[in-house]
Task: inverse folding
């Protein structure tokens, strides 16, 4: 019997990919059809995304898929959250598309908080404070652009719109905007009215796993693909990744590890309390209406930016080399708080880490290996702090941590994380986002019966490495040092 095949357009902050997934007798295989860089562009002093280029690259991938002459059931796009596309009445993209790291978010946050208190925003949305959130980006928009716009779509939803012509806001991405109310399950009219954002711009919200319609005929002709269905699976990449966590029973947490680290638990309903707000946790929506109680943590961005700065200075390292150098460096020489706001923006990452070490009377890492070890140890200790906060909010202990995403391949960070948390870590799959995207498509089309069945497919199909904790005394001592830095 022929396998059932699906396509996942997986857009990340560093690159995009078109993945072909095949479901055959309860096993899922993934094949990368096309990969392309996603490089931010500076336009008139603002950091932006080159969306037309990304969509052209997706079409190149679709043409490569068409050449294979394989039956393909459906396609769906996932992407990072908060950023959005503006379309005019003709369905044309209004450029530029701003990057969440652009400085305008801070201006928007300051303007928003003059109109409505932060406590009210959290009570309405359950979303943690970050200046990059959609609500703050829109507060920084020019009135002229909003007047020209006909609709707002988050990145993945916008790509699904370009594929099939149906403008819908899939709930997992809508929930990242800080304009969605998880209790009423609608756009927050209270916030829209307070910020003078026209409700007409915001499309209908649909659940994860919604059939949107066929690939547009013109696009099918251009790419050579036969008619296939476009599905809003989980358009937020973390929601897709969590759908592919190979968990079964017990108290587990997840860490979606990549440029960002997102640590949380899967719950039946949101926790919108003063404690949750004060700890700066977020309640985002997952597959099946579940809630992802999590915290967004700066992740391997620290390593990525160090590597980029060193390359610009003529010192090129691949990630494997950096990890080996870090493993060989002395432990716990210097620690930083990765949550320090200085680390959010691009550029000068080694200098920023060095500055924080000097400010806290610690040795400045003298080598690339020492710098990366400092970053990875500090990340693992921040994970421990975050997990303790999760346990405080849910009132129970976490027994194991599932690490998924590209960062799950970093065995040194996995071991550091197990050591810091003193619970077993299960690493994999690395391709959780694409797998979750594909598996939600399979559920939507009736090829899998449930999320539990999809997670069984992941357990049967993909590598899942268990890492046991060690060195508890040393990591406990390091955590006491870290807690003083993080206060």
Result:
């Amino acid at each position: 019997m022929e396998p059932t095949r699906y396509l996942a357009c997986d857009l990340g902050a560093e690159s995009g990919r078109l993945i072909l997934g095949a479901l055959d007798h309860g096993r899922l295989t993934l094949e990368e059809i096309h990969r392309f860089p996603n490089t931010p562009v500076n336009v008139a002093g603002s950091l932006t995304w080159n969306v037309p280029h990304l969509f052209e690259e997706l079409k190149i991938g679709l043409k490569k898929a068409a050449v294979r002459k394989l039956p393909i059931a459906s396609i769906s796009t996932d992407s990072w959250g908060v950023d959005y596309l503006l379309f005019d009445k003709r369905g044309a993209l209004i450029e530029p598309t701003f990057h969440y790291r652009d400085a305008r978010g801070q201006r928007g946050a300051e303007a928003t908080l003059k109109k409505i208190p932060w406590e009210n925003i959290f009570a309405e949305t359950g979303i943690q404070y970050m200046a990059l959130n959609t609500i703050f980006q829109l507060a920084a928009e020019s009135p002229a652009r909003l007047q020209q716009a006909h609709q707002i779509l988050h990145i993945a939803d916008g790509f699904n719109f370009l594929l099939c012509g149906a403008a819908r806001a899939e709930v997992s991405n809508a929930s990242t905007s800080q304009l969605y109310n998880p209790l009423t399950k609608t756009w927050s009219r209270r916030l829209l009215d307070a910020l003078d954002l026209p409700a007409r711009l915001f499309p209908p919200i649909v659940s994860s796993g919604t059939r949107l319609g066929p690939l547009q005929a013109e696009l099918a002709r251009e790419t050579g693909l036969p008619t296939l269905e476009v599905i809003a699976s989980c358009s937020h990449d973390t929601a897709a990744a969590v759908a592919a966590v190979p968990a079964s029973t017990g108290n587990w947490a997840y860490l979606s590890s990549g440029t960002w680290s997102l640590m949380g638990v899967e719950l039946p309903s949101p926790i919108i309390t003063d404690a949750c707000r004060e700890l700066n946790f977020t309640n985002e929506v997952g597959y099946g209406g579940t809630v992802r109680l999590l915290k967004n943590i700066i992740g391997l961005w620290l390593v990525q930016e160090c590597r980029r700065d060193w390359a610009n200075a003529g010192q090129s390292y691949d990630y494997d080399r950096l990890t080996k150098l870090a493993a060989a460096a002395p432990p716990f020489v210097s620690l930083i708080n990765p949550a320090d706001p200085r680390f959010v923006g691009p550029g000068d990452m080694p200098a920023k880490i060095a500055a924080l070490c000097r400010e806290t009377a610690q040795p400045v890492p003298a080598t690339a290996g020492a710098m990366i070890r400092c970053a990875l140890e500090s990340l693992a200790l921040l994970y421990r702090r975050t997990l303790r906060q999760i346990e405080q909010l849910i009132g129970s202990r976490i027994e194991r941590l599932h690490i998924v995403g590209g960062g799950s391949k970093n065995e040194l960070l996995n071991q550091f994380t197990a050591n810091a948390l003193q619970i077993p870590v299960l690493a994999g799959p690395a391709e959780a986002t694409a797998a979750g995207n594909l598996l939600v498509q399979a559920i939507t089309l009736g090829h899998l019966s449930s999320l539990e069945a999809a997670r069984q497919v992941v357990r049967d199909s993909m590598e899942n490495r268990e890492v046991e904790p060690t060195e508890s005394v040393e990591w406990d001592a390091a955590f006491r040092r870290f807690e003083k830095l993080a206060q």
